Amino acid sequence: MSIIRINGGKRLYGTVKVSGSKNSVLPILSASLLTEGKTVLHNCPNLSDVDAAIKILNHLGCKTEKTGDTITIYSRDSQACDVPDSLMREMRSSVIFLGAILAKVGMAVLSMPGGCELGPRPIDLHLKALRDLGAEIREEGGNLICHAKELTGCRIDLAIPSVGATENSMIAACAAKGTTIITNAAREPEIRDLGNFLNLMGYKVHGAGTSVITVMGGKPKPGDVEYTVMPDRIVAATYMAAAAGAGGDITLTNVLPGDVECITKVLRQMGCGIYMGEDNIRVVSNSPLKAPPPIKTMPYPGFPTDAQPPMMAACLMADGTSVFIETIFENRFRHIPELRRMGANIAVDGRVAMVKGGAKLHGAPVRATDLRAGAALVVAALAAKGQTDISDIKHIERGYDDLPGALRELGADIARI
Ligand code: EPZ
To answer: Which end of the chain is more exposed for a tag (fewer CB within 10 A), N or C?
Structure first.
């Protein structure tokens, strides 16, 4: 089984290109089911989650090609409507295919997505939205059986600004007769990206990225669609946290500074120098860091829950006590016991973690428990003295396109073994 081995204590210098966004390419791959012609997507990250999504498209009857960071999908002949359990289990967020399959075929059979390392991952808001649009959905033997002879535009009031429920609603609403208004919609940049893609396909989506999204149902335009996926703001946050914790001077390219405003604000509060260009950010961390004001994870534009673990690892190197409040997922502190093995002093009380800074971290054998927890271990190991071996790195490879390679380019002593 492969591990990531890091000998910490080296500062990071140089330039790193941020890969395309995992959480944007996944719903866009789902929406590509509805295109009439060929879909060509550029700046796609090379991740196991993306491979899982491509397997689902192939299972549904699409032809796909992946060359470098470009994925081409021919979906006109796809008629299947089921996502088998094996594929659902490979990627929890496969539920993002539900709206598109229903819109295209009028029927969908998915095995109930299980929970994941972050806790139960309910999909009640997805199902309510699709039922609002006219779908009949029943649960039978662990499967979701969905029928929608016709989808009819309506008002969808989301109880929580759920990213996935917003995306499923947008995609299904494109195929609905009439207009759909989605209120309390998630405002994450990935929603904006999906809206841009749907409009390029010929649909009419307004307000993606705001709390109210209007979708005029209709048909996709004939012909091919070509789109470039937005940069991954959480990968960007991870690189910035690594530079803050280990020290150094790095420049990120292919990044949208506006999408990581929350992170750069905290890094400035910690004493890092942040210099932004149109599509690049330079992070300088030379002086000792200081603990930032309390960080509370919130739906966008608040502090992103996905950046909480790597940023917590960076705060271990800051003087003073940092406070993190995790409001989105109930079990998103699984990196903390592993960080403690490296000498971290973190007290947890429910959803609140108090991180005692100024830690003298030392290398240790640790285990990645989920995607961003694994990223936190990498950030901590880069700053720790000595050798750290990280196991269960499949979690990290779900969301990071060759993280060891990118960090080695920046001068880290890191290898995938
Ligand atoms: C997306 O997950 C991301 N995944 C997650 O990133 C991210 O952490 C999350 O949004 C929040 O930003 C992808 O985009 C593939 P939600 P999603 O629906 O859509 C509750 C990563 O690390 N909820 O916005 O599943 C839910 O339990 C991953 O890249 C319901 O109660 O997140 C959670 O508490 C991890 N009912 C909250 O809403 C529902 O029907 C936010 O979940 C749906 C969600």
So the answer is: N
Q: If you measure from the C-alpha of residue 329 to the centroid of ligand 1, how many angstroms do you get, rounded to a whole number?
A: 8
Residues acting as catalytic residues = 116
Say yes or no: CB of residue 328 within 6 Å of ligand 1.
yes
Cβ of 121 closer than 6 Å to ligand 1, yes or no, is: yes
Going by alpha carbons, the residue nearest to atom 26 of ligand 1 is: 121
> Are residues 98 and 146 in contact, defined by beta-carbon separation less than 8 angstroms?
yes
* d(C-alpha 19, C-alpha 229), whole Å: 9
Q: Is 165 in the pocket of ligand 1 (CB under 6 A)?
A: yes
Closest CA to 92 of 121, 119, 124, 126: 121
Is residue 90 packed enough to be buried (19+ CB in 10 Å), middle (13-18) or exposed (0-12)?
Answer: middle
The alpha carbon dihedral of 219, 224, 226, 232 has a sign of positive
Rounded CA-CA distance 311/242 in Å is: 8
Which parts of 308-351 are beta strand (E)? 321-325, 345-349
pLDDT band at 121 (very low <50, low <70, confident <90, very high): confident
Residue 276 pLDDT grade (very low, low, confident, very high; cuts 50, 70, 90): very high
pTM given for the model? 0.97
Residue 79's pLDDT band, with cuts at 50, 70 and 90, is: confident
Q: Is 68 helix (H, G, I), strand (E, B) or coil?
A: coil
User: CB–CB of 318/245 below 8 Å?
Assistant: no
Mutation choice for ligand 1 from 328, 331, 333, 398, CB with most ligand atoms inside 8 A: 328
- Respond yes or no on whether the N-terminal peptide bond of residue 113 is cis (omega within 30° of 0): no
Write the residue with the smallest CA distance to atom 19 of ligand 1. 164
- Rounded to a whole number of angstroms, the CA Rg of the chain reads 21
Q: Quote the DSSP letter at residue 362.
A: B
Question: pLDDT-derived band of residue 335, with 50, 70 and 90 as boundaries?
Answer: very high
Give buried/exposed letters for 205-238 (b at 16+ CB in 10 A, else e): bebbbeeebebebeebeeeebebbbbbbbbbbbb
User: Which of 22, 28, 49, 163 should be mutated for ligand 1, with most atoms under 8 A from CB?
Assistant: 163
221: tokens are 């335009």
The model's pLDDT over 56-73, given as tens digits with 9 standing for 90+, comes to: 999 999 999 999 999 999
Structural domains of the chain ordered from first start: 4-18+231-416 (3.65.10.10), 22-219 (3.65.10.10)
